[in-house]
Design goal:
The structure is a homodimer. Chain A is an alpha/beta fold. The first copy, chain A, is built from eight helices and twelve strands. In chain A, α1 links the parallel β1 and β2. The longest helix of chain A is centred in the middle third of the chain and has 15 residues. The first copy, chain A, is elongated, with a radius of gyration of 19 Å. Chains A and B meet through α4 and α5 of A and α4 and α5 of B. Chain A binds a DNA duplex through α8.
Chain lengths: 229, 229
DNA sequence: CAAAGATGTTACAGGATTACGACAAACTTG
DNA sequence: CAAGTTTGTCGTAATCCTGTAACATCTTTG
């Protein structure tokens, strides 16, 4: 299972280093920055699985970073945990309303932050926590790397597997070919968008058992979506 | 939009009543109980969209309720917010590890709980948190790219979809053909204004289900508007 | 009521988008 | 290294969508 990618935005060097070390030893893939604008750049060039964001940072403020992450379609659904030194309830409420998923008030223990990160990831990206994904009659086991439908094992190629997993993490949601290339092939892949069609076709073929219905919906001029039939 | 269904498990009568009142006035559908076993029964007979669970309750303990909710397939993915009077970090971590999605430490303000509930719902059930456009009996889900009326899926072409979405973002407002061309086709499109008529016609046809009334009003010599019938 | 103006309706051809099959290169695996 | 898989790209077929024109119908106005 791929290590969850975290983006840590924290301008206290001591705390940043401590957290980076702790998360890495827990198997996370961490990038760190102290600057709001740089954080947005990093998030844009390689979309992380979760952002830990200090409220009070240099450059663009935490809440502004949060807002911009939400505005950009690529990062709109990335969960955000805010760190705040303030006790004021207003700030916490404002953070949540801006789109943060959670917050912690300093001081906090690394252990508590770890628990939160893991809880949020489990909720938002079950596959990263090793949980079984189920959509309709499709089951995907991220640990065993197996896919089955109606109790039947399916032979799914590597790319089709990643594609299916990506879809199953957001059932019903429509993804453009560009979004699929970013999410499945990795940001900045130099691949023709038409190629996505071919892999969709291969995936469709692979998950067909008997005369089962096609759970992948083509949305003309928009992209594809996996339906929970 | 259907009111989100909350299940409140709280054994302090005063607090329970206060919260119940606040949530109801915010448009939530709330059921309350003070007992852990009863909570499980209620959750089982009508699965709620979110559970607010006091750690210290009579009967089955909060953490046990949490565990059992997670174990039952029907309720395994219902988000849980725990309320705890304890300050101990251990308890909070334990709560998160047991499968709670979030917790609040007493005392907290109803406003903060409301913000949390809304944040969690927005994550888990976007449709319940208002990321969906609704006008009259029309529903448009921009994420899933779906349109339905009276619970029935509608087949809407790409341009009609954009047109409808544009209308639904400003219900009741009249748009001239020129404004529609700018807003839906993009500024500077070299298209005959009469073409709009044709797409209005196609949209009307597409959103007709049975003998439903036509929600698109023609304003002679001015344009069209979508009415919230 | 007749004429002018505006909107509704239909048909159609060209255009745009997607599905499919095949293939060569790159990559895995034994 | 050889056999087999996987992958990205093309060309073409199939499908769907779109804009326009032509005509019908309705509304306003004189």
């Amino acid at each position: 299972m791929a290590a969850p990618k975290l983006l840590l935005v924290e301008d206290d060097p001591a705390l940043a280093e401590l957290l980076e070390y702790r998360f890495q030893s827990e198997g996370y893939n961490v990038r760190t920055t102290a600057d709001g604008d740089e954080a947005l750049m990093l998030a844009d060039e390689d979309v992380p699985d979760l952002v830990i964001l200090d409220w009070m940072i240099e450059g663009t403020s935490g809440i502004e970073v949060c807002r911009r992450l939400r505005r950009d379609k690529a990062t709109a659904h990335v969960p955000i945990i805010m760190l705040t030194a303030r006790e004021a309830e207003d700030d916490r409420v404002r953070g949540l309303e801006t789109g943060a998923d959670d917050y912690l008030t300093k001081p906090f223990s690394p252990r508590e932050l770890l628990a939160r990160v893991s809880a949020v990831l489990r909720r938002v990206r079950p596959a990263l926590a090793g949980e079984m994904l189920e959509v309709g009659d499709l089951k995907l086991d991220p640990v065993a790397h197996r896919v089955e439908r109606r109790g039947q094992q399916l032979a799914v190629g590597p790319t089709e597997y990643r594609l299916l997993k990506f879809f199953m993490e957001s059932p019903g949601r429509v993804f453009s070919r560009g979004q699929l290339l970013d999410g499945v092939w990795g940001t900045g892949s130099e691949i023709e968008e038409r190629t996505v069609d071919v892999h969709i076709r291969r995936l469709r073929k692979a998950i067909t058992v008997g005369n089962s219905p096609d759970p992948i919906r083509t949305v003309r001029s928009a992209g594809y979506a996996l339906e929970a039939l």
